[in-house]
Amino acid sequence: MILLFGSTTVGPVPTLESYVLLLFLTQVAMLLLLALLLGALARRFNMPSIVGELGAGVLLGPSLFGHFFPDAFYWLFPPNAEQFHLLDAVGQIGVIMLVGLSGMALNVMLLKKHGPAALRISLGGLLIPLCLGIATGYLLPDTLVPEHIDRFVFALFIGVAMCVSALPVIAKMLMDMNLMNHRVGGLALSASVIDDIIGWILLAMVASMAATGGVHMGSIIHSLFFVALVIGFALTIGRLLIRKTLDFVRRSSSDDGPMVTAIASLILLSAAVTHAMGLEAVFGAFVCGLLIGSDPNFKHIRLPTVLSVLAPLFFATAGLRIDLTTLTEPVVLIGALIVLCIAIVGKFAGAFFGGRLSRLNTRESLAIGAAMNARGVIEILIASVGVRLGILNTEMYTIIVLIAVVTSLLAPPLMRLLLQR
Question: Cα 95–99–105 angle (5° rounding)?
């Protein structure tokens, strides 16, 4: 292979060293195997499978394996950035594809059905946690904030992480409780759709601010302009291009294989475009997935490799970054408890007030607050973006992921308790 850089000719690029490839294959195999076993164990105890998949990374990470068997840990996961980047690259593809799938899964028709009530609940469940999260980001001690990051960017990121809801977790929970056709279930899903859309837009803006070096007029104009450009292009030319491309693939083959390849290519290309704009790559993936899912001809397409391989591998890799030993430090532990309480109370309060304004009774309003408290997959995805951008350090990343797990585990029993009558 010959590469040309301007007028300079470079010879064949050397392949991976044998030892580097050996470590990479061993890492992937062990993470996938543990994610499979612990994910099945989590489902056996009626917990989301991502709890077990995250647990695979925690088990092999610095919290346990690295703490008790440091020599073996540093052999399997050497402190070598180039080595870890191989694993991280596969995880990033998993993130992008998973976000694209979450966009495809959103049912925007719910917004027409529930209309103003869903909007009121969503705005309450979005604005109150967002404001509380921003205030929390300002009040947290300096040890939980990376030195180089602008405090407002950090606070805004915490606010975004606080205000999202995990639509896949909520949908699964409502299906298990036979509440999909109930007024509470429909409103919770509709409000979560709005939360997700606004949450990804806010994340794209925060990523742009972090990339341009903080909050100033230039970064704000940059983020607003490119977010508006992406949305405007998606709703006009982008929608048409995606439909024409997928229609062509569907006519050329009756098999789902080429369609899966086309969808994956479009999601990755959209992620590359928004990343080149200085926005976050997952924002492009989400918008592309949303456009694909809005067409009933393509909404049924599933990407089995993403769900069965890339997603578990991403969550296991995300678990590797968690260091539970940091919670032994009083400052980190107290900070974690405060952030967790604010996250739960803020979402409950926002959804509750929105529900009451929509003339739901107290129990129904609280039940919607319990459902929307589940952060699950979405918050873990956002936390991984925060680490990649340098907005979160290890301590704060661990706290955010723990919030995602705890709120997802608390939501189902709270819903059952509130709606048992």
Answer: 145
Give 2's pLDDT tier (boundaries 50, 70, 90): very low
Alpha helices in 277-361 (DSSP H): 281-293, 304-305, 311-320, 330-357
CA distances from 385 to 362, 378, 381, 388 (A): 36, 11, 6, 5
The rounded distance, in Å, linking the Cα atoms of 198 and 194 is 6
User: For the chain, how big is the Rg over CA atoms in Å?
Assistant: 22
| Rounded-to-integer distance, Cα 338 and Cα 46, Å | 27
Side-chain-facing half-sphere of 34: CA atoms under 13 Å: 24
3-state secondary structure of 40: helix
Share of the chain above pLDDT 90, in %: 21
Segment among 199-213, 321-335, 378-392 with least mean pLDDT:
199-213
Query: In whole angstroms, what is the distance from residue 93 CA to residue 261 CA?
Result: 14
Greatest pairwise CA separation for the chain in angstroms: 75
CA geometry: angle at 219 spanning 389 and 209, to 5°?
20
Round to whole Å and give the CA distance between 19 and 24.
9
The amino acid occupying position 220 is I
Q: Could you tell me the domains of the chain?
A: 94-418 (1.20.1530.20)
209-220 b/e (C-beta count within 10 Å ≥ 16 → b): bbbbeebeeebe
Residue 52 phi, psi dihedral angles, 5° rounding: -70, -40
